[in-house]
Write a structure and sequence with these properties.
Largest sheet: none
Radius of gyration: 20 Å
Order of helices and strands: H
Helix content: 55-70%
Shape: rod-shaped
Number of helices: 1
Structural class: mainly alpha
Length: 44
């Protein structure tokens, strides 16, 4: 097993996963707000 060297880990996969999480969370929140506004406008 190689010795650990700080700052040499490849984090590209984790960064892509985090970007996807943020994107889908933002879209999900926008859709939820849109549904709530629609329900409020039609007295749902």
């Amino acid at each position: 097993m190689a010795e650990h060297k700080h700052g040499e880990m490849d984090t590209s996969v984790q960064e892509k996963t985090f970007e996807g999480f943020i994107k889908y969370t933002t879209w999900g929140a926008a859709v939820a707000i849109g549904i709530l506004l629609f329900a409020a406008l039609v007295n749902g």
